[in-house]
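Working notes for the structural subgroup meeting. M.R. asked for a predicted model of this chain before we commit to crystallization trials. I am recording the input and output together here so anyone reviewing the notebook later can reproduce the run.

Input as submitted:
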Amino acid sequence: MPPAQIEQDDVLRRARAEYLEMPGLRLTRAQAQRLWGLDPRTCEQLLVALTESRFLAQTRDGAFVLSSSRI
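Returned structure, recorded in token form:
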């Protein structure tokens, strides 16, 4: 597995773990980018992957929260 893929997998696992540990967590794109130390493109890819898999949902105000199916 290429190093970049390993790093992305690690970030994905970390993001999932943090949302599961704190089910009320609400993050904007900018907050997620700062929290996980990501560049804008990588952060966007992460959030898209998590929402497309229905792990996260995006609220009307743009925050990302744990999907109601996970609570």
